[in-house]
Amino acid sequence: MSSSQGVRVKVPASTANLGPGFDTLGMALSRYSWLELKEADHTAFHLIGDEMKGLPTDKSNLIYQVSQMVFAEAGKTLPELEISMYSDIPLTRGLGSSASAIVGALAAANALIGSPLPDSKLFDMATNLEKHPDNVGASLFGGIIAASWDGTHADYVRIEPPANLGTLVVIPDFQLSTSKAREALPAQVSLADAVYNISRSSLLTAALFAGRLDLIRAAMQDRIHQPYRAPLVPGMSRILAEAPDRGALGIALSGAGPTLIALLDLNESGVDELRHYLLDTMQAEGISASCYQLHPVAEGVQLLDDIKNKTFLDMIRGEVTA
Fold first, then answer.
1. Domain with 255 in it: what CATH number?
2. pTM of model > 0.85
3. Is 34 exposed, middle or buried (0-12, 13-18, 19+ CB in 10 A)?
4. 252 & 108 share domain
5. C or N terminus of the chain, fewer CB within 10 Å?
6. pLDDT, tens digit, for every residue of 236-270?
7. Number of domains the chain contains
């Protein structure tokens, strides 16, 4: 049975790869998108905010399409929906905007029909849509995710973020599509580079699980995607080489980029120095950018329960300014 009041969900942003963990490691971050779904007499869209500009407002919309996949999987029919969405996750910047939309639509549509599908099924559906499990796993389950995908099923382990782990993201003011970033990658890598990445990805996963922040610098090195994507992001090669000496535990391209994410020890000083370094280096390349301190978040997609008391817009105003 569907909820006559509709449902609302809040979905965290995510970063993927963390350097060596290509298409495997993801972490939920403290930027969010909010989504409301209601059964309706005719399909309507309320896409609020700058990040929603230009998105389809008909049944080709990703949220509508993904919702219908959930209904079909559960044997339900809800052809008309009222869809409201707001996001403060920048589009095509490497912070999981598409993954958050997919996870939000799956979770909201499932809740709308009484949650017949388990999270494991939603994870498989999300990974099949995104084609890799790292971003969607982080947005769905929260925390840090190590995951694999065999084309049908995704397996994962969730790691609680170390208490003193923080991040600083530098977001260049240009978009970089995942498809373009993928095209830069070689079809094959050498055995030496594969072993290099496997060892560091294994070390990074274990270090994060054990809270060994002292190992992150060595563990975040990568040879299979960042060297090939560096020409797409001016200043990236220099930042990857120098940021660990400017206050970062380690630094990596966030997802497909162009955002770069530095991991921080919140017990150490030097965040302001690192922020200035990142922005100045981008500026020296002629790139304007924004820099934000984001936090790993332990909670994934959340079903919000105050839907009767506030309109979607009022709820967003309260959440964003909180």
1. 3.30.70.890
2. yes
3. buried
4. no
5. C
6. 999 999 999 999 999 999 999 899 999 999 998 88
7. 2
